[in-house]
Amino acid sequence: FGNQLNTASGVDKTAFVHPDAQLASDVSVGRFSVIEANVQIGAGSYIGDQVYLGKEVTIGKNAVIYPGVKIMYGCRIGDNCVLHSNVVIGSDGFGFAPQEDGSYKKIPQTGNVVIEHNVEIGANCTIDRASIGSTIIRSGVKMDN
Questions:
Q1: Most CB within 10 Å of its CB: which of 66, 77, 137, 144?
Q2: 16-70 per-position pLDDT tens digit
Q3: Mean pLDDT score of the chain
Q4: Sequential DSSP letters for 55-121
């Protein structure tokens, strides 16, 4: 993907990378991207422009994260995954509990998302975090937008 994306490894000067993040030496990080504390990014991965990686996100080797992707705290992306533009991983799930008075109370979504290896997710897809445990996308899954 590196040649197709026309990028070289390295971190663009406009990107923010928290000092506690761990990036393999040949990772590419695009313009205006934000990488929070305790993020780990594996060898050969490409992080496009304006990507947000929340605290404790893990990205495997040779992943391609296109511009505008948001991966929220604690989510895990496997090796050789491709997330197309504006994908959101780990957004708050749509969980509400009915109350006696007929109203609804939001249920905390404390889980995460685990995307295994060799997964491709089309542009603008959203995968919510689990209320407890993990939302899991198994190896080899291909999702279109």
A1: 77
A2: 999 999 999 899 999 999 999 999 999 999 999 999 999 999 999 999 999 999 9
A3: 94
A4: TT-EE-TT-EE-TT-EE-TT-EE-TT-EE-TT-EEEEPP--EEE-TTS-EEEPP---EEEE-SS-EE
Instruction: Compute how many other C-beta atoms are within 10 angstroms of the C-beta atom of residue 78.
Output: 21
Token output for 127:
């995968």
The structure tokens listed for 126 are 């959203």
Residue reference for tokens 């705290």? 73
- What's the CA gap between 121 and 85, in Å, rounded? 9
Paired residues of 77 in beta bridges: 59, 115
CB 89 within 8 A of CB 127: yes
